[in-house]
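Work Package 3 (structural annotation) set out to generate three-dimensional models for the target panel prioritized at the project kickoff. During this period the team completed the workflow that converts sequence records into discrete structure tokens, so that structures can be stored uniformly alongside our sequence database. As a representative example, we reproduce one entry of 260 residues exactly as it appears in the project archive.
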Amino acid sequence: MEADSAGSLPRNRQQASNYRRTVSGSNERRRKNVKGLRDELSAVMEMCFNQSRTPETAFVRKVQGAPDTMCVLASDYQLRELERNATKPEAFKIVSVDPTFNLGAFDVTVMTFEHGLVINKRTGKHPVIMGPILVHRRKQFSNYFYFMSSLVELKPSLSEIQAFGTDGETALQQGLSKPCTNPRLLRCFGHFKRNCGDKLTTLGVPKQFQSAFIGDIFGYNIGSTHHEGLVDSDSEEVFDAKLLSLEVNYHLKVPYVFKQ
């Protein structure tokens, strides 16, 4: 970040390794806030101020020092593509927001979404691109509200984001939705599936039978054939019919399961 010129950047792995050994000691001292080293918060704030003079190339958009240290990172390209792919009711992509990354003393919350105008030739799917980022210390409503309200301030049309996909954390969902008009709040598929498995364990369903329950909900594959589950229902009517059928079957199966 503080290179004097392009010539001072490492040109291969060995030079990068040598440089890493050289600066590892100073990085450790910086993390411990040793007196005399450059103040990192001040440096980021200065970076934000300098970049604000040319918004079209800025990346560090907002910095807060207290009561919680937070930094919003977003390029104009990320904001523009987020608007293009996530705000139109007739065609939108779900914005996934994951706050689980951890970088030392800080958490990093990242927005990702599919780019609806591009298709990967190999997979036939839309590529997932990275959106705005929040660096923060706490996982509270105020943090996520600051994140989303900052994005809306930078590009007001982002208040029309149609859907957020999260792990279901209440503070995250409320903080993201408050600055927006009326977004749908969806659960991340992976988290939802894992939560269902945890709930079955809590209910005392033996491990050897849990896969049957999970399969009925999420579907399962036998070879190259996918057998649809509840989540594959095309309408509320189909969902209700499948659910009723499963309830009837489980009334017969569950006593046997617990007896075993």
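The longest strand covers residues 95-103.
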